[in-house]
């Protein structure tokens, strides 16, 4: 007979998922009720309100898609992009490439603006793309590129889109709750995220928000969105306001309990405090990594505090280091993707994982494993550098 699955207690310091706090896991285990139960409908309204706080928006069309962040991405594109449209897509990592695939599957033309992996999206290049393609109706870019640890200037990019009469679709999967994200103030039109990064919720849900301009575009479509499940005009029949909800799909009730709890915890801490915590732990980690003789891929002014891409030293076996950290220390870090595969590790300090204890644990474990690989480093010096960064 097959036994139940009992996972080990890992420390998740990769690109996601992040550690899920006990409060969120406890919420997940509460009794399941119906997805049209009046009490659950009340909870839906509360989740919407809390998501509006997290996104810093008053957008009425703000909701959690019942699927991972990739579905949130697809929801934005299939609702706002139609066959024959021209979309300017920025790529400075893996996820800009996925945006391009979505555009092409919608039957639209993708005009690519490409920057080196690890660099932010060039606002000047985007301006040149708009000048060359005045017919472009959408600008799509990644605010926090998970494959490189680079932040782009979302405020400037959204302003540029609006200047040219285009909608701005923003990937905020790794950004939400980790760095400032001001949807209304910046004029972002469609923003999607994920629950498993800086919200420290279980994977499988994608918060999204659409501006009034985006809703007008959706309502003016001449043909329905190509995805029935992600058609916002249908989904809003279930997630719209009021006590009467039209059945669309069976929502992941318990997962939404967990999302609600994680959003309550974010509200209790406060967005500014959460951003400051991520920054403080990032700075201590960087100080410790540099004391180990390691360097980061991204320039300091564009680094994400929640996702650190670290150059792998010459002669060090990438996979062996990650395997040893997992096997010997129950600690997960991420491999590089695309152009950074085999060249960088991705170390996450996201949400509940962004804690002072985890900084010290990682530095000590990494020093031990690198030492086994023949890379000379001093764990004591790394810990001391981190402590100095904290002011200890």
TrEMBL record:
Pfam families: Aminotran_5. Residues 35-327 form the Aminotransferase class V domain. This is Serine--pyruvate aminotransferase/ L-alanine:glyoxylate aminotransferase. Its cofactor is pyridoxal 5'-phosphate. The keyword RNA-binding does not apply. Signal peptide: none annotated. One of its GO terms (biological process) is glycine biosynthetic process, by transamination of glyoxylate. InterPro entries: Aminotrans_V_dom, PyrdxlP-dep_Trfase, PyrdxlP-dep_Trfase_major, PyrdxlP-dep_Trfase_small, SP_NH2Trfase/AEP_transaminase. Belongs to the class-V pyridoxal-phosphate-dependent aminotransferase family. One of its GO terms (molecular function) is alanine-glyoxylate transaminase activity. Its EC number is 2.6.1.44, 2.6.1.51.
